[in-house]
């Protein structure tokens, strides 16, 4: 499974691509950070982020794009920029027919460190170790983008099995309701 991980942001947007193998084996194919100046017009900043993400999608051909979900931030302006950057990247993926998955920061931290409240340094250390890198990805946005891709590689099979189980349970509920309905109608006629 090839996953493009995205740590969205307007000032710094982390982009990464990893290949997931058997079990928990993952390998990094690329990582970078797109930067836009704070004094640039918002629409142009979003276009720069989207253009970079589109180049990555066209170059690496990911099977899925994993984007950090804007969960909660105290600074509303930062949260808006993060959400907007994630939105233009999700749109670029959708236009290419690439599925998009959103993961919360705590899901990502739990996947790579075992703790949903891990700090950035712990995430960077574990990403470096998991991928067997000789040096830690810098800045933190690069490590976070890799962590998102790793998280998706590891969580996707479980999420897929859960979705199948939920679909089977829904079908069983439907069949049971139909069976009860037939029995009620039969009792009314009888």
TrEMBL record:
Catalytic activity: Endonucleolytic cleavage at a junction such as a reciprocal single-stranded crossover between two homologous DNA duplexes (Holliday junction)
The keyword Transcription is assigned to this record: no
Active site: 7, 68, 141
PROSITE patterns registered for this protein in UniProt: RUVC
UniProt-annotated binding residues for Mg(2+) 1: 7, 141
Pfam families noted in UniProt: RuvC
Cofactor: how and how many bound: Binds 2 Mg(2+) ion per subunit.
Main EC class the enzyme belongs to: hydrolase
Subunit structure: Homodimer which binds Holliday junction (HJ) DNA. The HJ becomes 2-fold symmetrical on binding to RuvC with unstacked arms; it has a different conformation from HJ DNA in complex with RuvA. In the full resolvosome a probable DNA-RuvA(4)-RuvB(12)-RuvC(2) complex forms which resolves the HJ.
Name this polypeptide is given: Crossover junction endodeoxyribonuclease RuvC
